[in-house]
Amino acid sequence: MLIRTLCRTCTGNGTHVAIHARADAQPPRHLTVGQTLTRRTCTDCDGTGHQPLTATDRIPPPRT
């Protein structure tokens, strides 16, 4: 039996978005600060948004 769980890395949408900050110093004394968004396919779920697990691979809930 297969159980489909949402991917924890991409939260089920199949893409991974990363924010990168950059600072470019251009003469004469100009400092440009910006952000770059990169969007790529999630490598944990191969872009499907789900991770299939067999019933024996399930992690039992913690005991309280």
TrEMBL record:
Source taxon at top rank: Bacteria
Annotated protein name in UniProt: DnaJ-class molecular chaperone
The organism of origin for this protein: Nocardiopsis algeriensis
Classification of source organism: Bacteria, Bacillati, Actinomycetota, Actinomycetes, Streptosporangiales
